[in-house]
UniProtKB/TrEMBL annotation:
Protein name: Transcription factor E2F8
The species this protein was found in: Anhinga anhinga (Anhinga)
Similarity remark: Belongs to the E2F/DP family.
Main location: nucleus
Gene3D superfamilies for this protein: Winged helix-like DNA-binding domain superfamily/Winged helix DNA-binding domain (1.10.10.10)
Amino acid sequence: RSVLKTPLKQAATSHLVLTEIQPACQPLTTPPKPKEVLPADPWTPTSNLKMLISAASPEIRSREQRRELSNTTSEVLQAKHCLQEHLSGDEYEKSQPSRKEKSLGLLCHKFLARYPDYPSTAENNYICLDEVAEELNVERRRIYDIVNVLESLHMVSRLAKNRYAWHGRHNLSKTLQALKKVGEENKYTQQIQMIKKREYEHEFDFDGERQEEMARSFGSNEHSEMSFVELPGMEFRAASVNSRKDKSLRVMSQKFVMLFLVSTPQIVSLEVAAKILIGEDQLEDLDKSKFKTKIRRLYDIANVLSSLELIKKVHVTEERGRKPAFKWTGPEVLPDIQDTKLATTSTTCPPPISESITSKEQCSKNLFPSRGRQNFTRHPSLIKLVKSIENDRRKIQSAPTSPVKISAGTDQNLSAFPGKMAQVPAIAKHQLEGQSMKAKEMKMKLPRSALECNLPSPEVVPKPEPPCTAAPSQPSALTQPLGVCSPSQGSAPPVMLPHTHSGVSYAIYLHPSQAHTVTTYSPSFMLQPLPCANVTGIKNINSKVLNKITTEEGDNQIAADDPTKSLTAKERPTIKSETSSQRCLKRSQALQENHLIKRCRSDEEGLDTSLTFFPSGYLIPLTQCTHGNKAGFSDKEKAGICSLQHTTYSSPIAGVIPVTASELKAVNIPAFHITPLNIMLSPTSIAAGPVLSNSCLNSSNTSSAQNPSSSVLNFTLQHVGLIPAGVQVSANPVLQQVPLSSQPENVSQSSENMNLQEEKVSQNISQLLDSGWLSG
DNA sequence: TGATCCCGCCAACGT
DNA sequence: ACGTTGGCGGGATCA
């Protein structure tokens, strides 16, 4: 299968959209980077120009940019001439590469010019890094920079070694929603405020250090670090791709984007961004070098985002002077939409067609991951497992046909134009919102009720509410031309539905490091967050305040740009639809299979309230887990996946986790536990969780460790906000079930179902344990 | 000069 | 052992 692996150029040419470009003259050896290739190379200036032109959108490009382009162009031409004619000594050198020409931004434009914004579903929009590097005549290293950022937006996803799949902007709106949500959860707005405040303060007294420390303390709490936010469609892949280490560009990029999405003026200065990002990573020292490095990276990211026209550079004038900053010029992010969409989609859901495989996948998706909502954090070790699984999957999938991209198509329809979409469904949305709101409120206020709801829902549960209420209504049709759901999406939507506000599902993986961090803070940290969790309201308030500040600070000037956009109202995700639960039910029914059940639960959980704070690692859309399968999957793999998912979702883990996190030290349980917590996000889900967790726990030997005490768990969870205040989960599986479970039966079922998977999971866990962290 | 940020060393990983 | 990824920061360019 792996035919793909090394994508040689040959192939490349064929697939690429562009194709034309150049004759491959050189020895392509993939890897060998042709370092300084003289201008003479392959890429024809013309082609570049073309690309550039096409790339540059009319207005968006600021004049400066235009200038650049023109310059570039001219330069290119010149270079060309030189080349063509003959290179005469030095001159050509000069002409060659002005720094600008080599800029990442320009390169990114070229890169983007190669692919359509909204690629048709399945086309082979796949990207071969080597090819691209060659064609664009740059070192591969640079391509990585671009791709990493694109990946953070889910515009591309990695398929395999050297290969990426191009999704274009189909997933963009979803991604942004998810990012916004996470950003809110992380209280980024507040963090920004704090930083700004400090700055002011600093102005007075220099004593920056002190302040920093303060900041740290503050920040530390807030800094949650989330690693990577994944979308439902592309989760795993990404996960695999990003190994633990990838905490940088990809994640940084997402965080950076989040800052824009949660800022009212939508203007973010590099300085602030850098500070926040640094804070998250390591609160410790803010040394200059680190700061500087961060800034450098941010420039890299900003260049790519600028090329995508998501942001544009501006200068904020403050008392101190001008500071470089960027303003969001991308689409507004409407939290609600997704829900609607999802709902809609879900409606559509009925298995799409396509082929067995596709349908299968979808189904599975529905079943399993369904809803996407499940979020969870992953411990590194888990990640490993996941990776291996993924890899397998990948291999399997790798086949050309790989449907992989699935999601893209679908999404696009849906998400592509959030605004529009939103409008259409608006009404429905409202309705939903209302419902969701109610639900939310209920949850918030009446945890118990929430619990009840949750519990039941997961399993059997026919919740009182109208399941898809909104969903049916509409739009889905619009969005998705294909009756069938696009694989990814189709499946996804259903999944997503459950989620609350944003509806975006995502999973967060924790980094080991993070885990530590968390641990460290835990006490204080946890506390703070808690409130937040529910906090949407609070957030809003904060945000307002922040905004003011921001404005004052000077961003304003820029702000002037377009104050218009005020997102304020939207900020809150509040919306959520319970539909999800219903869906779950449906799905579950349909599937009945064990897995499904679990998933449902998780879905339910999905409420977004989530915990914001946690340091998370990676967000993954659960939904997909499934998709990998297809024919390709071996049962084993599936099982593995399932298990993972279960783990993830399954409350058990989650339940455990929270506790762990807070008490990791004591327990010695690694991040692993924590991870689940993240997942826990939705309070609702929590209820469901416990049951599963039990199984999981049991399976895992860790149990002892985990078992901390149910009280601890509860405490943790509550604080975290995962669980509604009133609710309690027992660490102990048994116990947990009791309280929550309204449906013991279900539980049992689930557990049964789980068994197989559990085994796997347990195996995995054991492996993990073996690996060592569990030493304690 | 400060803002940008290219370049490519080299480590972490994967195979 | 070798190839792929990509963190990182020196130092060149630009404004």
